[in-house]
Structure formats: structure tokens, C-alpha cells
Amino acid sequence: MIISRLIRRSLFVTASAALVATFATAGTSTGQTLKDTAGTARDTIPDNRPSAVPRTIPSVAPAPVQPTGRELLLSAYGQTDSASAKADYDNIIALCRRALADDVSPAAVTYGRKLMSWAYNRRGELIVEAEGEHKALADFHRAVQIDPQRWRAVHNRAVSYFALGRTDLAMSDFTRTIQLEPRFSTAYFNRGELRFEQGDLRGAVSDYDSAIRLGVKGSSAYEGRGYALLQLGRYAAAVADLNMVIRFEPNDAAAHLSRGEARAKLHRWEQAARDFNRAIALDGKLTRAYERAAWLMATCPEARFRQTKLAVDTARKAVELAGETNHGNLNVLAAAYANNGEFEKARLIQAKAIDTAPQAVTADYRQSMRQYERSRPVRESGRAVQIGRKPTRRNRTR
């Protein structure tokens, strides 16, 4: 399964907020703020890593021959601040296992399991980059098994499920993450992306709304919502979101293309033409930009925006890029020939478009053919022309 823009991945981007952890022993405590391996404070959502060895763990006699379970947990916790390599998390997990095998209190057992779950999740994040999703999934799954409340591990498991094509499980885990941590904007964004891919556009818009309200960073949520709104026919709202995307990323060819499509549906022909031309300038191989530009020049109801030879040349470029079996581009090329008065060519090309088109669009194509048989060009009436799926999508994030 092709992963599109969906879930952006970044090793520690979604790891948590300033984790203030206090070591508590019989009479002393030390406050520490955990940082990630880059040395930067985490985001504002608190990690559910256990914050300290519980006070209820009883003190033990000094200097035993073998470390006690409590001492093993203290050692494991002490290594969490500097852990950055797989071997570091291996060691923390091993220490927790040894501690839990000792005769420790129920509070120590609870703490040890939480710390071990945290280490499995962080180790999985490293394994993703080095060994891939399949091997990382085992660590995320183990983290959730040990501590079902560890929402970061649930979310990481969802990303891996999606990457491996197990979308039903991914959807379930994204939803579970939101239930466990309703403030985690990335989970809403990722679930919105998955809903978009599954065709649940209204559900996707709702999740993008939540992600934006909760402060998800960057333009991706506006981008996803803009494309969903475009396909729902909410063109003005789509333009507003795509404006935000272009503000963030002025050289995003796909955003210019889709904004042009929305503007064309609003009959803002001049603005649409500018967007299509800009998309072509930014990405000379973006087939749909040539197709949409040619369609506007060939069929615009306002004569001042129509072109003859340029429309044909632009439509031929779209066919050249996509191949002569792409029915949509053939349909546009036929319209361009008809606009140029070349009705015999228009009929020949339109016949190819009809032969290769799915049944859903053949009625429209046949209606255009009837126009060409009467030596008449096609004019855009404002009736919906199929809007393409989002041209580009990015990687999902953890």
C-alpha cells in the first residue's frame, strides 16, 4: 500500500513535553526535566513515563551483595535521561525485568511495568528508522501490552499498522490514542488523513478541525482539510485553507493547482488561470496542472479567457506526460481541438476517451461528442467536473 502524505514521521517529534521527574527516596528528592536526544525540551503534552520510583517502595539494608529490586529500578530510572541508543533501552528493559523478578512491593511492580513500557516504546522509535516498521511494531505492541494507558505507544503502533497496510487496526489505535490523550493534535491529524484516504471526507474535515484547534504545527492539516473541502464542493472554504498552505509553502505546486480548481468552480477564471500557470512553473511535470489549464482555455464561458492554439499545446503536453490511455486528458485535448475549430480531430480523440473511460464519466463524454458531431465546442457550464484526488501527500508522523 502506498503511504501518501498521511502520517508524518519524526523520531522524537511527538515524544512528550517537559517531563518533570522526581527521584524520591527516604529523605531526599531530585527534580529533573527530561530532554530528548537532541537536547531540546519536549512539546507541551506530558509524557506518561513514570515520574519517579514510588515512595512506598521500602528502604533496604545498605550494600547488599546483589542489588535489590528497588535498586535495580533506581538504576533503570537513572539511565532514562541519557538514553539515546538501542542498547541503552535494552539495558533499561533488562533492569526492569530483573527488578520485577525480585520480591518487590505492588507499587514497585506498577512502576517497573510503566518504566519498561516507556523503554519499549522509545526503542521502537529507534528501530523504525534502522530496521523498518515490521520490527518496530513488535516493540510498540509490547509497550501497549505492558501498559495499556501508554498513549504514545498506541499512537506509534497505529502509524506502523498503517504503514503495513493494516488500516482497520490503525484507525482503532488512532481513536484509542485520542481517548487516552484528547489534547494530542497529531492523532487527530493522522486519523483525519486516514479518513481522507478511505473516502470519509466529512470525518476527515472534523479531525482536521480538531488538529488545527489544538495547534498542530505546519500547513499539513490546512492542506488536508482544503483538499477534503474541495471534493465536498465547499469551494470558498477550500480556497481559504489552500491560501494558508501557500502562505506556509509558497512553492507548493499542488496547493496552487488545487486552489485554481476551487477558484474555477467559483468562476474566478483569472485567478484560476494564474494558479494553474504558477503550478506549471513550479512543477513542469504536474500533469493535472496542464490538464486544468487547457480545460479552462478551451471551455471557459468568458471568451476573453479562451485560447486556441495554446489550449491545444497545453492539452497535448498533459497527454504526453500521462500517456494516451488517460481518458481525462484525452477528453480535455478533444475539447481544445473543438475550441480551435478542428472538430474531426476532436471526434477522433473523444472516441478514444470514451473507450478508455469508466462508466461513471462516459455519459458526460458522450454529451461532448454530440457537440463535436454538430461542429460545436464545449463550454464549461459550472456543472461539476471531476476534481482530482490530492496530487501529493506526505509521510505520516509519529
Short description:
The chain has 398 residues and is mostly helical. It has a domain at 19-204: Alpha Horseshoe (Serine Threonine Protein Phosphatase 5, Tetratricopeptide repeat), CATH 1.25.40.
What does this entry look like structurally?
By secondary structure, the chain is mainly α. The protein has a domain at 19-204: Serine Threonine Protein Phosphatase 5, Tetratricopeptide repeat, CATH 1.25.40. Helices cover 61% and strands 3% of the residues. It contains 17 helices and two strands. It has helices spanning 69-78, 86-101, 106-131, 133-146, 151-163, 167-180, 185-197, 201-213, 220-231, 235-248, 253-265, 269-282, 287-299, 309-322, 327-339, 343-356, 359-373, and strands spanning 19-24, 29-34. The chain has a two-stranded antiparallel sheet. α1 runs antiparallel to α2 and α1 packs parallel to α3 (106-131). The relative contact order is 0.09. The model is unreliable at 1-6, 8-45 and 383-395 (pLDDT under 50).
Question: Could you outline the blueprint of secondary structure elements for this entry?
Answer:
Elements: E1 19-24, E2 29-34, H1 69-78, H2 86-101, H3 106-131, H4 133-146, H5 151-163, H6 167-180, H7 185-197, H8 201-213, H9 220-231, H10 235-248, H11 253-265, H12 269-282, H13 287-299, H14 309-322, H15 327-339, H16 343-356, H17 359-373
Antiparallel strand pairs: 1-2
